[in-house]
Amino acid sequence: MKPSELPRRAGVGFKPEHFAAIDATSQPIGFFEVHAENYMGAGGPPHAQLGRLRQDYALSIHGVGLSIGSMQPLDADHLARLKIVCDRYEPESFSEHLAWSTHDTTFLNDLLPLPYTEATLAQVCSHIDQVQTLLGRQMLLENPATYLLFEESTIEETEFLAEVVGRTGCGLLLDVNNVFVAATNHKLDPHDYLKRFPVQWVREIHLSGHSETTDDAGARLLIDSHDTAVKDPVWELYEELIARTGPIASLVEWDNDVPEWPALRAEAEAAGAILRRAAERRAA
């Protein structure tokens, strides 16, 4: 099984509107990430642009539609299309979410939470085994941003993720913004969560912005919206994490209200500066 091997640098999620600016000159970017589902067509401008970028940059393919946490079988057609994309581009990494998004024949176009139980654990591991066997490569599993907790959960999220790794040999994608969003929503300590996270299996980190609103009871509620720059508390958590782990491939996501390329590049450069400081401290 081919392992995930992204460079331990900062990357960004590729947006087609940035292609001309990116292609005009060499960029200080370690890798680009794309959503697999955007490249499941046979050809056209999406593949022309990504093929050009692939010549010069490492690539991470991030799935949003496998429904790894569903209690029903994985969609065989979706899996087949995913394999075609991965075979075509040979990415350094492939990742998906710890979530579900299908019910019977309906695709819900959302990343929905799941209870952490032995039954769920067995199903998630079975699905990951199926994906990794088909693709012939290691999959990274991303921790979710959540807005509710299940009474039937019997396993802590960090323990659940560690057990998945132990049973399947997959790696982990640690989304720091998701940690902050979920911890704030559930009135937990994000620093404590990170201390318990099995960071030895993390092969990629995500950073993004979030928005804030209130729930029906008037309580503070954070939304993993990917529509702003990375917020200061998330940067602080990230720097704390990297000081402990050393450099890990780190991606800035900005999927809604996308800015011009220089603004997104600046976010990646900020992450890159944190990675360099950590590397210098370890080398001293």
TrEMBL record:
SUPFAM superfamilies: Xylose isomerase-like. It comes from the Bacteria. InterPro entries: MbnB/TglH/ChrH, Xyl_isomerase-like_sf. It holds the Pfam family MbnB_TglH_ChrH. Belongs to the UPF0276 family. NCBIfam families: PRK05409.1. This is UPF0276 protein GGD46_002868.
